[in-house]
Amino acid sequence: QVQLQQSGAELVKPGSSVKISCKASGYTFTSYDMHWIKQQPGNGLEWIGWIYPGNGNTKYNQKFNGKATLTADKSSSTAYMQLSSLTSEDSAVYFCARWGVYYIDYWGQGVMVTVSS
Amino acid sequence: EIVLTQSPTTMAASPGEKVTITCRASSSVSYMHWFQQKSGTSPKPWIYDTSKLASGVPDRFSGSGSGTSYSLTISSMEAEDAATYYCLQRSSYPPTFGGGTKLELK
């Protein structure tokens, strides 16, 4: 069965960077886009970008250019998102999600990132 | 970017009541997708390509719409349907979500 297992919660200092992971299993990792989505406490969902692990192509929401960097390791079927120059506005839950044939069909459990000194 | 506006933002329905949630797009989109999210959990795919139910979704749910106006309807509210529902468009870059509709049980 398809599973997206994300890394654990992070407490990080303002100005620093953090890299979170999303390990995929149960399907061919290189055949589907992996999307990343932000959810701030009590707020809605915001699309960050996607990566196609088959060739590493990425596409970002312009709002997150320079903030988020998406990568993928085919050997371990793991997608990564690095967030840089963190501020309190980056405190949120971050989801990875697979775009299947027609729609987002699987989500990771989410990673809570807290930016605090 | 296309802005999706959901209405209402919050509502309460009694068991057996019909529920309709609307998602309006600032420009025309080809399809709308819907997700259900319960507190502390990941969103679940609910309706895709405007009107197709995701796996496991009860058939009391339906989706419809075109252009700039889409809706999710529950024919008869049940307790387990209490959740927040989000619409999503991917017709235009970047993909955007609606602000969500919180549906509570009355």
How is this fold's topology laid out?
The complex is a heterodimer of chains A (117) and B (106).
Chain A: E1 3-6, E2 10-12, E3 18-25, E4 33-39, E5 45-52, E6 57-60, E7 68-73, E8 78-83, E9 92-99, E10 104-107, E11 111-115
Chain B: E1 4-7, E2 10-13, E3 19-25, E4 33-37, E5 44-48, E6 52-53, E7 61-66, E8 69-74, E9 83-89, E10 96-97, E11 101-105
Parallel strand pairs in B: 2-11
Antiparallel strand pairs in B: 1-3, 3-8, 4-5, 4-9, 5-6, 7-8, 9-10, 9-11
Silhouette of chain A: globular
Helix content of chain B: under 10%
Strand content of chain A: over 45%
The topology string of helices and strands of chain A comes to: EEEEEEEEEEE
* Number of contiguous helices of chain A: 0
Largest sheet of chain B: 7 strands, mixed
Note the quaternary state here.
heterodimer
What is the gyration radius of chain A calculated from CA atoms? Answer: 13 Å
DSSP helix fraction of chain A: under 10%
Rounded mean pLDDT of chain B is 96
- The percentage of residues in β strands of chain B lies in over 45%
Chain-averaged pLDDT of chain A: 95
Low-confidence stretches of chain B: none
Shape of chain B: globular
Total beta strand runs of chain B: 11
- What is the straight-line distance between the termini of chain A? 40 Å
Order of helices and strands of chain B: EEEEEEEEEEE
Tell me which protein chains meet in the greatest interface and how many residues each side has: A-B, 17 and 20 residues
Tally of strands of chain A: 11
